Amino acid sequence: MSSILAHNLHLEFDFSYTSFPLVSLSIAFGVWLVWKTWKLITISRASLPLPPGPVPLPIIGNLHQMSVTDQSSTFLQWQEIFGDLVYVNIFGTPTLILNSYEDAKELLGVRSQIYSDRPRLSVAGELVGWNRSLVLGKFGERHRTMRRLLARSIGGKHAQSFRLHEEFAICTFLLNLLEKPRDLKLLLSQLTGSVVLDVAYGHQVKSGHDQLIFWFRRIVQDFYDATAVGSIIVDMIPALTYLHSYIPFTSFKKTVATWRAHLTETIEHPFSRVKEQLRNGIARTSYVAQHLSEGPLDFETEDALKYSSFNLYAGGMETLAVALSTFFFVVTKYPAIQQRAQQEIDNVTEGKRLPTSNDRERLPFVEAVMLEVLRWSPISLPHRLEVEDIYKGYRIPQGAVVYSHPWAMSRDKRSYTSPHEFRPDRFLETPKEPDPRLFAFGFGRRVRQLGPICPGKHIADDTLFLAIALTLATCNVTKRVNEAGDLIEPIPQYTMGVVAHMAEFDFEITSRSDDAIQMLTAAHTQLGE
User: 219-257: per-residue pLDDT in tens?
Assistant: First the structure.
């Protein structure tokens, strides 16, 4: 018996011993197989073509073909030649332009995990400081913290708690516009800034010379300048980020320092003032006050709160300003649209009160006007691809800057009938045409992770509807008459750049009645108390 047991043990020992080479061989084969597969995939990816696009020049690529003032027209021309996917090279940076909603939804929405980063803008980001913000900051834990803070206070249904802030700002805007219709552009800037400052910091703007409004407008202009062509050269050549201080005969270093000082002042001052107001027990309801009053915050969370409050402007307020300038153009040019919307409002309010957000479902044509305004004037910010991707048989290189081109999407004949016409009924007919908010407020994880529209954009959507409804309820916007007694016909023109704005045009604005002015003034007084 013992000999049999010993023999069995010996066999077991021999079996385990002989398994070592087999295991090693299996591991080696597995490593080789993985390497071979990776190599084949790499070779296969490298052999795939890039998306079509214009032929680049050495070194500068397609930079010479990029319009400084009207990028959208250039993109539209390329779309006609190359299709919905257009690939260009800007000083060595691969760049992809998405002209269709379906492509943008797939890449920036479905594949948002690898498309959620922002391009590296050395001047605006690293040198000025916008890289700590939601606009240009790298997607990561800091972004998630800022988004969580925003979602808890103003995301989704939470935006409703700030409607009184919006109504006060709109009433102020309309009363000022009735006095100074030539100041539309300035007053629109004040309106958007007023909403942001009231929601973010509880700061009510009561005059056209508000210091915080001036600071906010200034840093927005600084941002445009920091992303202009001269700065883009530094962005495309990273070494210049660190050498700019040594470039002789240039004021670039001083200019960057000024931009940075402006940004720091605009972020720090209103935040510190809310902290002081809380200590003195006089703080008004606001996004910042709500979070600071919940208890001490660690440094990282407080810094995220500080930058997220400032970024409310970038989270939809620029879309609001552009859309409202388009609205005033539309009601000037198409009086029948204005009259139809006014009749709908009068049927609901009977002329005895002002419309509110609670009337929104009963004002479908006013809502349709708002949607058509958004379709006419969408804006977008670029994304950056973190890893190489393959789409529709094309290779998209790692680090590619990806532009969704909402102007092409909003004028796509496959989605919209007569896309160059202003026709609100397209959103009332069956079947309805696509809601422009799908692309007007951006794509991607930054938008999708907190719902269809991210924080700040709920505020902008509410404010846009209220501004349109209150304007139609209380005012008549008409064409201006020249010295010869002829009506001046407004022509739709946009000033292109980082953001496209409706160019200035002539119009007249008057109150619809004495009762309308009295209701507007009374609401302004009551809301300002």
Answer: 888 887 777 654 555 555 555 555 555 555 457 778 889
295-314 pLDDT per residue, tens: 889 999 999 999 888 877 65
Tokens standing for residue 29: 């084969």
Sequence-separated (6 or more) residues with CB below 8 Å from residue 311: 133, 134, 135, 146, 456
C-alpha dihedral over 255, 256, 262, 267, to 10 degrees? 170
Bond before 431 cis per omega within 30 degrees: yes
Sign of torsion, CA 144 146 152 156?
Answer: negative
With tokens 């209103």, the residue in question is 270
> How is residue 500 written in tokens?
């496209």
Give which of 128, 463, 132, 129 is closest to 305, Cα–Cα.
Answer: 132
Residue 340 is predicted with a pLDDT of 98
To the question of whether residue 454 is assigned a binding role by annotation, the answer is: yes
Going by pLDDT thresholds of 50, 70 and 90, the confidence category of residue 447 is very low
- Chain-centre distance of CA 57, in angstroms? 32
User: Any idea what the Cα angle at residue 358 is, between residues 354 and 363, rounded to 5°?
Assistant: 75
CA distance 333 to 490: 6
The mean pLDDT of 1-8, rounded to a whole number, is: 44
Q: Give Cα 176 distance to the centre of its chain.
A: 28
What whole-number percentage of the chain has pLDDT above 70?
Answer: 78
Write phi, then psi, for 401 (nearest 5 degrees). -85, 130
Global confidence as pTM: 0.81
Ramachandran quadrant class, 138 (left: phi over 0; alpha: psi -120 to 50; beta: rest): beta
Strands 508-511 and 475-478: antiparallel
Chain centroid, CA 153 distance in Å: 19
Report pLDDT for 291: 93
- What does the alpha-carbon distance between residue 465 and residue 469 come to, in Å, rounded to a whole number? 6
Alpha-carbon distance 104 to 97, whole Å?
A: 9
For residue 402, what are the β-bridge partners? 96, 383
Contact residues for 182 (Cβ-Cβ < 8 A; gap 6+): none
Residue carrying structure tokens 């920091």: 226
For residues 196 and 159, give the distance between their C-alpha atoms in angstroms, rounded to a whole number: 12
**CB proximity list for 200: less than 8 A, separation 6 or greater:** 270, 286, 287, 288, 309, 310, 312
Task: Give the long-range contacts of residues 155-159, CB within 8 A, separation 24 or more.
Answer: 155/450, 155/451, 155/454, 155/455, 155/458, 156/450, 156/451, 156/458, 158/458, 159/455, 159/458, 159/459, 159/462
> Which residues are CB-neighbours of 31 under 8 A, at least 6 positions away?
none
Q: What CA–CA distance (Å, rounded) separates 399 from 93?
A: 8
Higher pLDDT, 149 or 38: 149
- Within 116-251, residue ranges assigned H as helices are 141-153, 163-179, 184-201, 211-226, 229-236, 239-243
Dihedral of alpha carbons 378, 382, 385, 391, sign: positive
